[in-house]
Specification:
CATH topology of the largest domain: Fumarate Reductase Iron-sulfur Protein, Chain B, domain 2
Number of helices: 6
CATH architecture of the largest domain: Orthogonal Bundle
Structural class: alpha+beta
Strand order of the largest sheet: 3-2-5
GO molecular function, one term: electron transfer activity
Protein name: Succinate dehydrogenase [ubiquinone] iron-sulfur subunit, mitochondrial
Number of domains: 2
InterPro entries: 2Fe-2S_ferredoxin-like_sf, Beta-grasp_dom_sf, Helical_ferredxn, SDH/FRD_Iron-Sulfur, Succ_DH/fum_Rdtase_N
CATH superfamily of the largest domain: Alpha-helical ferredoxin
Catalytic activity: a quinone + succinate = fumarate + a quinol
GO biological process, one term: respiratory electron transport chain
Shape: elongated
Order of helices and strands: EHEEEEEEHEEHHHH
Helix content: 25-40%
Length: 184
């Protein structure tokens, strides 16, 4: 049985700069492509003699550098905006909470260019908001507010049906919307 990843590897032996290959783990989605109109992971999507591949193309709605190579600059900028690491608040000698000096406050949507974070970044933000070790839950939630961020999602569930990893960002988005709305 062939995997699309191997199939593309054979093509790459004859053509250069067609596709970026990073690994074969099926975890991060960096090898996601569109095959016959369906988003899949090239590293774990099998093909056999009965399956006819009519069209392999890059993922829709993401700028293309060349062939199947996507420009993920915007994604990485937005991902960096959510500060995807644990941040803790420290207490001074009087017991007053102080913020770590090297940490910036999370940007609000008004401060970001092209404010919509997208389902993947919001799902990752949800992960940090739920982490009990993190001390910036309310700041993280504040960073998701505004008409062009979390609430720009209209609940069409396209992110869930098109996620090649089978994740459910729509559920996380709904939970975040509910939590933010309850807080006022």
């Amino acid at each position: 049985m062939f995997f699309i990843f191997i199939f593309i590897g054979i093509i790459i032996q004859n053509l250069i700069n067609l596709y970026i290959i990073k690994h074969k783990l099926g975890k991060c989605g960096c090898c996601a492509i569109n095959v016959n109109g369906k988003n899949v992971l090239a590293c774990n999507t099998p093909i056999d003699d009965k399956q006819k591949i009519q069209k392999i193309s890059p993922l829709p709605n993401i700028p293309v550098i060349k062939d199947l190579v996507l420009d993920l600059t915007h994604y990485y900028e937005q991902y960096k905006n959510i500060q995807p690491w644990i941040m803790r608040k420290k207490k001074d000698e009087h017991g007053k909470i102080i913020k770590e000096p090297d940490r910036e406050i999370l940007q609000t949507t008004k401060e970001r260019k092209n404010a919509y974070l997208g389902p993947s970044t919001i799902l990752n933000s949800f992960r940090w908001i739920r982490d009990s070790r993190d001390g910036f839950h309310s700041e993280r939630k504040d960073g998701l507010q505004g008409p062009d961020s979390l609430f720009r999602c209209h609940g069409e569930m396209n992110c869930m049906s098109n996620c090649p990893l089978g994740l459910n960002p729509a559920k996380a988005i709904a939970k975040l919307k509910l939590a933010i709305t309850k807080e006022g």
